[in-house]
Amino acid sequence: MTRLLHLNGPPAIGKSTLARRFADEHPATLCCDIDVLRTLVGGWQEDFLGAGALVRPAALVLIEAYLRTGHDVVLPQLLVNLEELSRFEGCATRSGAVFVERVLMDDADAVVARFHRRGGNGRGDPWHDQVRAIVAESGGDEVLLGYHAGLERLLRERPRAVRLPSVDGDPDRTYRALVDSLAG
User: Fold this and answer.
1) Residue 21 CB: number of other CB atoms within 10 A?
2) Rounded to whole angstroms, how far apart are CA atoms 119 and 127?
3) What is the rounded distance in angstroms from the CA atom of residue 64 to the CA atom of residue 69?
4) What's the burial of 133, exposed, middle or buried (CB within 10 Å: 0-12/13-18/19+)?
5) Which domains does the chain have, with CATH numbers?
6) Do 12 and 76 contact (CB within 8 A), yes or no?
7) Helix pair 141-157, 108-117: axis angle to 10 deg
8) What span, in angstroms and rounded, lies between the C-alpha atoms of 126 and 108?
9) Apex CA 71: angle with CA 70 and CA 77, to 5°?
10) 30-31 and 73-76: which strand pairing?
11) The predicted structure's pLDDT at residue 121
């Protein structure tokens, strides 16, 4: 059965990295990374959040249309708001696909540390600077801890969402855990 695989988790936990690898290793799977789509909107560097608001509706249409072709979609996106999450789940339902939720997690202190290290090697995605600035302006580490707490609540409220430990420094192990979780 066709599926929409939602990789959820706090910033810098490895969602995009795992999604790209999953798509690479599963031919015809679409990696619909909303952060990448933002970079296709003129002026995204100056209004990262605004660009996201513009591309989310387009992403929903793209995902639903792609699922209708009978192929899987992987969506690496932090979604804590249940209303927003239900929009993506609705795409799967309307297209006859199954909605699969995997939440990549680490302990709260590690999430903060990983965020601050992200992109520090100069190889980060182009939007990392914007995300760092938004987090800093919105409350810094408290925002990251809030995301972590929100995801913990989400895991309690959504029993079909599966927690996956994101092993810092070992993306291969995390990826194997993802693939194994989908096989069972």
Assistant:
1) 19
2) 10
3) 9
4) exposed
5) 3-178 (3.40.50.300)
6) no
7) 130
8) 25
9) 130
10) parallel
11) 53
How does pLDDT run across 128-177, given as a tens digit for each residue?
A: 888 888 888 989 999 999 999 999 999 999 999 999 999 888 999 999 99
Tokens of 127: 């939007």
The single residue listed with the structure tokens 């003129």 is 42
Amino acid type, 101: E
Residue 132 exposure: Cα atoms within 13 Å on the Cβ side: 14
The amino acid at 100: V
DSSP string computed for the chain:
--EEEEEE-STTSSHHHHHHHHHHHSTT-EE--HHHHHTTSTTTTT-HHHHHHHHHHHHHHHHHHHHHTT--EEEE-----HHHHHHHHHHHHHTTPEEEEEEEE--HHHHHHHHHHTTTTS-S-TTHHHHHHHHHHHTTHHHHHHHHHHHHHHHHH-TT-EEEE--TT-HHHHHHHHHHHHH-
